[in-house]
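Changelog-adjacent note: as of this version, every example in the card shows the full chain rather than a window. The one below runs 106 residues end to end.
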Amino acid sequence: MATLDEELLQDQEEDRREIAYIREQLPSDLKDMYTDEQMVWMLDSIADYFFDSGILESNDDEVDIDIDEVADYLCKQAKKDGLPQLHPDEVRFVVEADLDYQENSL
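Full-length structure tokens:
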């Protein structure tokens, strides 16, 4: 059984792999737009969206995810958290890449 420190290190490594994957998927003008810390915040907020929306509790084999709705959620959360303004059209690419990563890592 892994210790808490080992689990935290594993989570950090997983975040690094996912961020690297997402950066590869982003259009060239967005690749360096966000820091790693901002990307981690976005990944955490996307997970919060899925939890808050009830999607994670669905028993359906296929779940329809509205990428624009998730991007809007991130933008609203950033404003609520006092972070720099995010633009839905740009954040949408991060959401799409995150979903691709999650689907490919299963």
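Structural remarks: The longest helix spans residues 4-25.
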